[in-house]
UniProtKB/TrEMBL annotation:
The protein's name: Cx9C motif-containing protein 4
Broad class of where this protein is predominantly found: mitochondrion
Upper lineage: Eukaryota, Metazoa, Spiralia, Gnathifera, Rotifera
Highest taxon listed in the record's lineage: Eukaryota
InterPro entries for the chain: CMC4, Cys_alpha_HP_mot_SF
Pfam families per record: CMC4
Keywords linked to the UniProt accession: Disulfide bond, Mitochondrion
Species of the source: Adineta steineri
SUPFAM superfamilies in UniProt: Cysteine alpha-hairpin motif
Length: 67
């Protein structure tokens, strides 16, 4: 089952790719890709430890503000 390990290494990669595709399609207008960006942010909140590279610029913990 090595595929599961590969997917877990960067859990949020699909969302990052989806965001890149959206931005490319809409000439890098972030307003057009807000829903996709929010999905990536939520993935990073929920699974940031499994996506350290993908989520490096996003909060990766719902409780980080109470630290």
């Amino acid at each position: 089952m090595p595929k599961d390990n590969d997917q877990k290494s960067e859990f949020c990669q699909n969302f990052a790719c989806e965001l890149q595709t959206c931005l490319d399609k809409h000439t890098y207008n972030p307003d057009k890709c807000e829903k996709v960006l929010n999905k990536l942010k939520q993935c990073c909140l929920d699974h940031g430890a499994q996506s350290p590279v993908i989520c490096s610029g996003f909060p990766t913990s719902k409780s980080s503000s109470s630290k």
